[in-house]
Amino acid sequence: MHSTSKNIYRNLFFSILCIGIILSGCKNGEEEDKNPLSEEEQESAEVRPEVIFAIADSKPIYQHIESQGVVEANQSVELKPKISGYVERSYITEGRSVQKGDTLLVFDRREAKMAVQQAQNTYEEALHKYRIEMNMRTNGNNSGTNGDHKKDAGKQMVRITTGLAKAELELEQAKLDLSYTVLKAPFTGTLSTDRRLANGTYVNAGTKVGELVDDRTVRLRFDVLESELSKIESGMEVKLSGPGAEQLKGTVMAVDPVVDTKTKTGTIIVEAENRDGILSPGMTVEGRIQVLKQEGKVRVPRSAILSRDGGRTLLFKLKPENDEVHWVYVEPEALNSQWAIINHEQVAPGDTIAVDRHFALSHLQIVKPRLQTPE
């Protein structure tokens, strides 16, 4: 009896176990029916990388040459008196604007005026002697006829022997020295000096007392690679950017025909208006010259162009209806640092093109698109 009870319990246990296995299998089958996607499809659905896109357009692109240049004044001169003397008045002060012909420095003129008067007296005395000598020669030669050439030679000799020729030169030199006692501005500009000349200061001839700079118009020298030099011509517009990001415009005035053999660069000269005094001599300025304009069917950001094995280039175009990307093999017709020109039947203005986070994409991949923020 006891053995029979054990058999009954054993059979009941196995029956319950089989029922549990059957129910578990049915449950798994129901779950599989609810999720019919394959493992690859499930994996693809879960991985949707965020990709940055931009809208293609039909605008042209431009080729530019960029370089740094140094500002030079259009005119500048060191102020150096030609004579020595004592300062009577000085108008040379830092930053003062002057007009052409304005008086800058005046020396004590008394000695110079006396020298002119003395030279004038000597000249008049020599002139008197010359006239007497010429009258005597004229009276003595009335009976004969001489050629004009001999008369001119005789006059010149008399000018020398009577001291008239020397007196004339000394008078002219004295007047010139008197004019040197006043230093005037040779052109309109701004004064620069690091010294103050008080009245009575003795200044030697040739001593620098200041500098006059005309920076209303400035010149800039830019070094350009020899490979780019032939693209630049006189008259081209140059966009200038100062140290403080100030924006100005200049014009190419000349292209130096000589190339530096060490640096392999040539020099171009640019002229720019500087009425507001934004640029000062010695400043470093950024210059940008547009040398070429190129047009095509489509313009896309250069970052859209990717290179695959074998050197082939492609881009990814978005299908907005299902967020799927398609690769399109393209050959850019023109490139600059920011843009590329594309002529391809599968790419048109208005298409959405991947420009960032797209390096690892594959053909027909589903992505999470985000439009690039305009700059």
TrEMBL record:
<dbReference type="InterPro" id="IPR058625">
    <property type="entry name" value="MdtA-like_BSH"/>
</dbReference>
<dbReference type="InterPro" id="IPR058792">
    <property type="entry name" value="Beta-barrel_RND_2"/>
</dbReference>
<dbReference type="Pfam" id="PF25954">
    <property type="entry name" value="Beta-barrel_RND_2"/>
</dbReference>
<protein>
    <submittedName>
        <fullName>Efflux RND transporter periplasmic adaptor subunit</fullName>
    </submittedName>
</protein>
<dbReference type="GO" id="GO:1990281">
    <property type="term" value="C:efflux pump complex"/>
</dbReference>
<comment type="similarity">
    <text>Belongs to the membrane fusion protein (MFP) (TC 8.A.1) family.</text>
</comment>
<feature type="domain" description="CusB-like beta-barrel">
    <location>
        <begin position="220"/>
        <end position="289"/>
    </location>
</feature>
<feature type="domain" description="Multidrug resistance protein MdtA-like barrel-sandwich hybrid">
    <location>
        <begin position="76"/>
        <end position="212"/>
    </location>
</feature>
<dbReference type="Pfam" id="PF25917">
    <property type="entry name" value="BSH_RND"/>
</dbReference>
<dbReference type="InterPro" id="IPR006143">
    <property type="entry name" value="RND_pump_MFP"/>
</dbReference>
<dbReference type="GO" id="GO:0015562">
    <property type="term" value="F:efflux transmembrane transporter activity"/>
</dbReference>
